[in-house]
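RESIDUES AND SHAPES:
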Amino acid sequence: MNRTVFNEAQLEMLDMMSFINSPETLSELKQVISDYFAKEAQTEIDRLWETGELTEAKVESFRHLHERTPYK
């Protein structure tokens, strides 16, 4: 059997789970976490835009991007 080793952040999250006492509270926590990662993603997109790594032409090229896994 493999043993899972949790990092500090994972242990903190598990500890916080003891305060979840209703589906509504769980839903609110999920929303807060989702909002956090959406904000982080937007910050990175803004950084890429400001540095020129992301441009209008590159965004437009995503419209025609087809990266599908080939199946046999």
The chain has a mean pLDDT of 92.
